[in-house]
Amino acid sequence: MNQNHTIGTIKEDSLRPLRSWGRGTLIWIAILLATGTWGFYAYYYQLRHGLASTAMRDYVSWGLYISTFVFLIGLSHSGTLVSGILRITKQDWRMPHHPHSRADDFRVAAVRWHHAHH
Predict the structure, then answer these.
(1) pTM of the model
(2) Distance between CA atoms of residues 45 and 80, nearest Å
(3) Residue 103, pLDDT score
(4) 93: number of Cβ within 10 Å
(5) What distance in Å separates the CA atoms of residue 50 and residue 114, rounded to the nearest whole number?
């Protein structure tokens, strides 16, 4: 990384794409919102009507559910690992990303707790 960069210039460079959204960005936002809304509806429907509504009646389906969950736990832990490495090596530019990996761990733990108690 160029040593002439300061925290201010790195922040400015990082935030520049967020200051002006084009048509493509708005289309992606609409697609992601629609997909997220559909996902929340599907999850609600599954909670309301049980796993039979997803045709998950065999062990393979449960294995996919469990392996996906374990993958997401591992993904959140890798974020914490990267954050820890950046902290140990005293990388100043890591500061904006540092709290997010811990928030991901909390969200995954909350989902795990929810599934264990419902």
Answers:
(1) 0.44
(2) 33
(3) 65
(4) 14
(5) 15
Task: Using DSSP, state whether 95 is helix, strand or coil.
Answer: coil
Q: Please name the residue ranges forming H helices in the chain.
A: 7-19, 23-49, 59-88, 98-116
Contacts of 55 (CB under 8 A, 6+ apart): 61
User: Which tokens belong to 83?
Assistant: 């954050």
Q: pLDDT of 28-75, one tens digit each?
A: 999 999 999 999 998 899 888 877 777 777 677 778 878 888 998 888
Cβ count near 95 (within 10 Å): 12
| Category of 56 on φ-ψ map: left (φ > 0), alpha (ψ -120 to 50) or beta | beta
Give the chain's mean pLDDT: 78
